[in-house]
Design brief:
Heat Shock Protein 90; six-stranded antiparallel beta sheet; 3 domains; Beta-Lactamase; Phosphatase 2c, domain 1; alpha+beta; globular; 15 helices; 566 residues
């Protein structure tokens, strides 16, 4: 049996996202198909949720461990907790013929686990204190030789295509038809339907049907009926891997047309007042199930489709203004989803981060990534340019860097691989600077590489002084022959690592004087006794006050990592 990875976290709802990221990183290394990874992710999430809800009390969550092992093409996932044993026999059995409300609350999670996994075994102790172990076994499917992961450039081009259609097309019906065409093509679906709420009847009415070979010209649904009706009534996104196992699915239309629905992805449409005006659903992803990445893309493109409905009722000036505002809001929401939702919590360390775009969207970003060996990868980067172009390039850069780190490359090799990918995937002549550090929480030893970025500031508690650390390298996306060197430093107790973009150090005052690295070092030395969050706050406040007369001219991003004193 080959060990793939092990993760120990507190059994909290917040850590379900950490578990999902852990599974995604292992899935990338194994080159799993999206279908296999989705099924593993769903089963583990259901199992981990049971531990969160049943093993421990909400005010005293204990630990749970997720262990991944493989034997040839079979993966073994062991979830261990030390709380109250879960008793599946006491859960009401899943009944497909029961009312919807009963089915949703009656054993559906356990049903999914057993349906998605090949073997499920449970070893529990009679008393609290465990260990209790749930073992999930599944035969995995890998990507075909030569197959590529999701194409970021294709997705971004699809977003741009919809934006261009909304600007150039004045015919609403034609516009909606083209949007659904782009959705179906980008998501590799067999067909798609766009529903709008008929204000006179309150019904959902299909406005666009793709590949409607059965002659069904229009579909009318009550809000709440079927998947699209459920989405329109609740405002939630639904990703269903097997339609006939979901109690909300209405097979009436399959029966009437002879079509066979397998997988469904559906999202609500909101107007600018956040009122639901319709829903979009796509069916049967070719050769796979819809992924969480597909969900994000559908939500973003549906948001643009909703704008187009409003645009038909606005004059030209209002049209342009609302379009820009909604696109930027959508872009900011998408961009924010690329950033960590919270900073890592590591015993003996305190970590804080700050990110503020100068405009609605930014070219700066930071990221945290837990490596298989337990080290923490920290990334800070700055894309050339401003606004939407920089934000789109930022999305590409985040993706290629995460993918390279998932290959377990060194910081310098990550930069080299990212440089190759960026040069191969874009023609905009944009580039990105970055600083990547791999930090060992046990020893403080830190390996780092720098691609044309600002040097890291390191405060040394032993001598109450600061130094700047960098390594030879240029911005990524400029030279195909670029090389990147790697260096090492050690953070001792009390030491502080500060990573930043030039929006911090290059702000200017009324006399055109820059804030600079010396002032940054002075603030850190004056604040060294405080927490990482307070240090970050004081740095930002000092930079803002320094440039109060001139204001911001660039995005600001900052990461502060402090090793707690012994």
């Amino acid at each position: 049996m080959i060990l793939l990875g092990e993760l120990r976290v507190k059994a909290t709802t917040e850590n379900l996202r950490t578990i999902a990221s852990f599974l995604q990183s292992v899935g990338q290394r194994l080159q799993l198909t999206e279908k296999t990874l989705f099924e593993i992710d769903l089963a583990v999430e259901e199992a981990a949720t049971n531990i969160v809800r049943h093993a421990y009390s909400a005010d005293a969550p204990g630990d749970m461990v997720i262990l991944l092992e493989a034997l040839e093409d079979v993966i073994h996932i062991t979830l261990t907790d030390w709380g109250r044993p879960f008793e599946p026999d006491k859960v009401k059995p899943f009944d497909l013929n029961a009312p919807v409300e009963t089915r949703i609350s009656g054993g559906m999670g356990l049903h999914f686990i057993h349906s998605l996994m090949d073997v499920v075994t449970r070893k529990t102790q009679a008393d609290r204190g465990g260990p209790n172990a749930l073992v999930l076994v599944k035969k995995i499917e890998r990507l075909r030789p030569g197959a590529r992961p999701p194409d970021v450039a294709r997705e971004l081009n699809a977003m741009l295509s919809v934006s261009q259609l909304m600007i150039t097309s004045s015919d609403l019906d034609l516009l909606l038809q083209r949007i659904v065409n782009v959705l179906v093509e980008t998501l590799d679906a067999e067909r798609g339907t766009l529903y709008l709420i008929d204000e006179s009847t309150g019904e959902l009415v299909s406005q666009v049907l793709i590949e409607d070979r059965e002659g069904l010209q229009q579909v009318r649904l009550e809000v709440g009926q079927g998947i699209a009706g459920y989405v329109a009534s609740t405002g939630t996104v639904l990703n269903i891997p097997d339609a006939y196992l979901d109690p909300r699915f209405d097979p009436t239309f399959d029966q009437a047309t002879g079509y066979r629905t397998r997988t469904i992805l559906a999202a609500p449409m909101f107007d600018h007042r956040h009122q639901i005006v319709g829903a979009v659903q796509v069916l049967n992803k070719r050769g796979d199930v819809f992924s969480t990445r597909d969900e994000r893309l559908l939500v973003a493109m549906v948001a643009q489709a909703a704008i187009s409905i409003e645009n038909s009722r606005l004059n030209a000036q209002e049209l342009r203004q609302r379009l820009v505002e909604q696109e930027l809001e959508t872009a900011r929401a998408i961009q924010s989803s690329f950033l960590p939702q919270r900073t890592p919590q590591i015993s003996g360390w305190a970590i804080a981060a700050y990110w503020r775009p100068m405009r609605e969207v930014a070219g700066d970003f930071y990221d945290f990534y837990t490596l298989p060996d337990g080290r923490l990868a920290v990334v800070i980067a700055d894309v050339s340019g401003k606004g939407v172009p920089a934000a789109l390039f930022m999305a590409l850069s985040v993706t290629v860097l995460r993918f390279a780190m998932g290959l377990e490359l060194s910081p310098a090799d990550v930069m080299g691989r990212a440089n190759e990918s960026i040069l191969a995937g874009q023609r905009s002549r944009m580039f990105v600077t970055a600083f990547i550090a791999y930090l060992s929480p046990v020893t403080g030893e830190t390996h780092f590489a720098c691609g044309g970025h600002n040097p890291a500031l390191v405060y040394r508690a032993g001598r109450h002084g600061c130094e700047f650390c960098s390594a030879l390298g240029v911005a990524m996306g400029v030279f195909d022959t670029a090389t990147f060197e790697e260096d090492t430093m050690t953070l001792d107790p009390g030491d502080i690592l500060v990573l930043y973009t030039d929006g911090i150090t290059e702000v200017i005052n009324e006399t055109d004087e820059e804030f600079g690295e010396d002032r940054l070092a002075a603030v850190v030395m004056e604040s060294a006794q405080f927490s990482a969050q307070t240090i970050a706050d004081r740095i930002v406040l000092a930079a803002v006050n320094f440039a109060v007369e001139e204001g911001d001219f660039d995005d600001k991003t900052l990461v502060v990592i402090k090793r707690e004193p012994e």
